Amino acid sequence: MANHRVVEIPKSRIKEEITKILFEKGYILNYKVEYSPRPGLIRIALKYHPVTKLSAISSLIRVSKPGLRKYVDCEKLPRVLNGLGIAILSTSKGLMTDKEARTMKIGGEVICYIS
After folding, report:
1. 8 A C-beta contact, residue 97 and residue 89
2. CATH architecture of 58-115
3. If we measure between CA atoms, which residue out of 8, 17, 9, 2 comes closest to residue 112?
4. DSSP conformational letter for 98
5. In angstroms, what CA-CA distances link 26 with 38, 52, 53?
6. Where are the domains of the chain?
7. 60-62 and 108-114 as β-strands: parallel, antiparallel, unpaired?
8. How confident is the model at residue 37 (pLDDT cuts 50, 70, 90)?
């Protein structure tokens, strides 16, 4: 029995960047971007613990919404689960995690928290 499930989502640049960050940080097994049917698809292989069968992503909380945007400066960057989770930010340098934004000393719009 496989330890992963594949989900498909419509492709957009921001979804592609968020998926790339999730893959780099080890929250998903793999992903594939398909451009053929317009607007395209992103196939994501979700990651599960081999013994407990629990998902690698325990919670995903959307912070900034179209009706209420949440911006933070570099001094007030959020820490998710005291550094165990990540916050994804949209900055002037592109999408990045809170840790990367902290080292670059830039703030931005908080997209979501993942743990």
Report:
1. yes
2. 2-Layer Sandwich (3.30)
3. 17
4. H
5. 29, 17, 16
6. 1-56, 58-115
7. antiparallel
8. confident
